[in-house]
């Protein structure tokens, strides 16, 4: 479920400022997967009209991006293999937890993101995310992994599911 990293020329400097912060955070505390999705989300926010990232501090938006991805991928759940406290994430960006939370909420609202959103799920977690595999066939929601191979192949071709299970 790819995305574009194209950024309007007018916001390229702001994008680079935000991405420098998310890249550092992901290299220091998280993974390359988080870094890749963070860049994609920053680009998407820059393309949004009007772009929310034009106001406020870059650190707040960078934190909000990683915080949002953390919410989608259960980063704050201590039962997961990779876990981080929200307070520690916000501290890394030198913003308050309330700022990190507020920017995350603004991002998730602007991009219409929900928990387990297939578009923002880490590739390594894709197979375990049931939302990725739910599709509608003749008005009935079904798990694509249980459908005949031909239908699965067509779903991949149309970009409905990310790959053949």
- Would you report the number of β strands? 2
How many separate structural domains?
2
What's the order of the H and E elements? HHHHHHEEH
Judging from the principal axes of the Cα atoms, what is the shape? globular
The CATH architecture term of the largest domain is Orthogonal Bundle
Q: Tell me the CATH superfamily of the largest domain.
A: Cyclin-like
Count of discrete alpha- or pi-helical segments spanning 4 or more residues:
7
Structural class: mainly alpha
Question: Mean pLDDT score, rounded?
Answer: 94
**CATH fold-level topology of the largest domain:** Cyclin A, domain 1
Give a description of the structure:
With 165 residues, the protein is mainly α. It folds into 2 domains: 9-115, Cyclin-like (Cyclin A, domain 1, Orthogonal Bundle), CATH 1.10.472; 129-165, no CATH class. Helices cover 50% and strands 5% of the residues. It has helices spanning 12-29, 32-47, 58-72, 86-92, 97-110, 130-133, 149-157; strands at residues 134-137, 140-143. It has a two-stranded antiparallel sheet with strand order 1-2. β1 (134-137) and β2 form a beta hairpin. The longest helix has 18 residues, at 12-29. The chain is globular and about 50 Å long. The model has no long low-confidence stretch (mean pLDDT 94).
